[in-house]
């Protein structure tokens, strides 16, 4: 390092980031780029993008993994734990409060009105995700074909999401080897601007703490002993809580099922929160019957209003699944256990991926075959998210079934939300909040009229 960043200074920044990280992964990455590269100059542009490229190869929330990576690079394992943990922690408590309010008071007129305004915005949120990911992923005809097959497979054939990911990755890998010009796309992540900081001139005079030519820190060099140690610790951190949960609640209890299921989900979340939500919705609604489609829609809307990674929507699913199936516990306590179990196993692999793989990122850099597999998976994810948009759209627009006709309030708010996102370029958080306000106005208007 050309400049020492103290652990206390880093702790204060990661804590602040946990409370301001709105805007989904693109917004969160932009905030980190502005703060860490441009303003504070803790890491160079190329080192930042190299770390981001690695995180984008992994399942899980790439923004949280990027924070973990940079924290680890600066201050070893504790730095990574603090950076990744504080990125998530505020949203854990905020969403717990929202989940309890939703489950306990969701049928109260005011709360129901707010939620009725949130739901149409979800259509705009998911459509925007389809287009954003599609623009990045569908660069070749081969990718469009993969996306179409994935959509038909999950929407018509109800093919499990992990099978779609594995198949798309295999096709992309083979295509990348045999026809690299047809499948491979050079992926260089774009960093959106979130405005100036007002002190860029002063910041530019600071030396970069970790610049392009800085040698790899000693703790970041790969070794077999370190690999075995980290893997062993990770397995213990997964197995001990599961054993305790199985002894307390039973190995076939809902909480044990959630522990196993969300561990599996964490390992196949290529494509981010929308892709994994499609997978979780397919399983939690259709296979396990833990929640309804309407509750999944509500969870996505609530998660959009909180800071932190959007994949926190899984905490809501875990909470509501356990609330709905309390199994001799109070619904609130069952929901709390379900939420904590879900959050723990969702993020444990994210830390392990960084601590295990970050020392080896140079081995992955520029690997053409790996790029082909990744672009195949990303293309399939576009089709999966399109399926999510249709499922959610039908649930929201026709809440009482197609025979009863659409809810015209929902239609109007959904169109307004689409216009706000695509024409006015409003931040999603504000669009969601404005949708809630529209729901309250609908309630007040109905109360004022006979």
Care to describe what's here?
The chain is an all-alpha fold and 450 residues long. It has one domain. It is 74% helix and 0% strand. It contains 19 helices and no strands. It has helices at 7-20, 24-39, 45-57, 62-105, 109-137, 141-155, 161-178, 180-183, 200-204, 224-249, 254-266, 273-287, 293-304, 313-324, 331-357, 361-364, 368-397, 408-422, 428-448. Helix 1 crosses helix 4, helix 5 (109-137) crosses helix 18 and helix 12 (273-287) packs parallel to helix 14 (313-324). The longest helix has 44 residues, at 62-105. It is globular. The N and C termini lie far apart (71 Å). Mean pLDDT is 83; it is low at 186-190 and 193-198.
**Number of continuous helical runs:** 19
Strands, count: 0
Describe the global form. globular
Radius of gyration: 22 Å
Uncertain runs:
186-190, 193-198
Supply the number of structural domains. Answer: 1
> SS-based structural class?
mainly alpha
Q: Beta fraction of the residues?
A: under 5%
Helices and strands, in N-to-C order?
Answer: HHHHHHHHHHHHHHHHHHH
For the residues shown, what is the average pLDDT? Answer: 83
In whole angstroms, how far apart are the ends? 71 Å
Major pleated sheet: none
Helix content: over 70%
């Amino acid at each position: 390092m050309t400049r020492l960043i103290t652990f206390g200074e880093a702790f204060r920044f990661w804590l602040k980031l946990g409370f301001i990280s709105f805007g989904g992964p693109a917004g969160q990455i932009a905030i980190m780029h502005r703060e860490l590269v441009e303003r504070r100059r803790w890491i160079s542009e190329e080192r930042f993008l190299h770390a981001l490229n690695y995180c984008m190869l992994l399942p899980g929330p790439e923004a949280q993994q990027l924070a973990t990576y940079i924290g680890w690079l600066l201050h070893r394992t504790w730095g990574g734990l603090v950076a990744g943990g504080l990125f998530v922690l505020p949203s854990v408590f905020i969403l717990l409060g929202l989940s309890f309010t939703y489950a306990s008071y969701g049928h109260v007129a005011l709360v129901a009105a707010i939620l009725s305004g949130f739901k149409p915005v979800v259509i705009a949120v998911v459509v925007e995700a389809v287009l954003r990911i599609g623009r990045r992923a569908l660069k070749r005809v081969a990718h469009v074909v993969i996306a179409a097959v994935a959509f038909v497979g999950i929407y018509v054939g109800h093919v499990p999401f992990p099978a779609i990911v594995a198949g798309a990755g295999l096709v992309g890998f083979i295509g990348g080897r045999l026809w690299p010009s047809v499948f491979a796309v050079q992926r260089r992540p774009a960093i959106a601007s979130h405005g100036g900081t007002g002190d860029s001139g002063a910041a530019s005079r600071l030396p970069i703490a970790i610049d392009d030519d800085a040698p790899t820190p000693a703790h970041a060099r790969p070794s077999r002993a370190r690999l075995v140690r980290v893997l062993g610790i990770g397995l213990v951190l997964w197995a001990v809580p599961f054993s305790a949960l199985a002894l307390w609640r039973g190995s076939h209890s809902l909480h044990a099922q959630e522990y196993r299921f969300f561990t599996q989900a964490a390992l196949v979340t290529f494509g981010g929160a929308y892709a994994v939500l499609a997978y979780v919705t397919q399983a939690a609604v259709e296979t396990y019957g833990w929640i309804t489609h309407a509750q999944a829609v509500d969870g996505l809307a609530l998660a959009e209003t909180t800071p932190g990674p959007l994949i926190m929507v899984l905490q809501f699913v875990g909470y509501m699944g356990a609330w709905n199936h309390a199994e001799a516990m109070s619904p609130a306590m069952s929901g709390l256990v379900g939420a904590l179990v879900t959050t723990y196993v969702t993020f444990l692999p994210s830390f392990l991926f960084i601590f295990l793989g970050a020392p080896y990122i140079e081995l992955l850099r520029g690997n053409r075959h790996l790029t082909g597999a990744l672009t195949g998976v990303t293309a399939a994810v576009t089709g999966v998210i399109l399926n999510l948009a249709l499922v959610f759209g039908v649930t929201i627009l026709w809440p009482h079934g197609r025979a009863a006709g659409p809810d015209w309030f929902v239609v109007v708010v959904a169109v307004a939300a689409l216009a706000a996102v695509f024409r006015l370029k409003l931040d999603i958080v504000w669009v969601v909040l404005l949708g809630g306000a529209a729901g309250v106005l609908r309630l007040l208007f109905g109360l004022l009229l006979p």
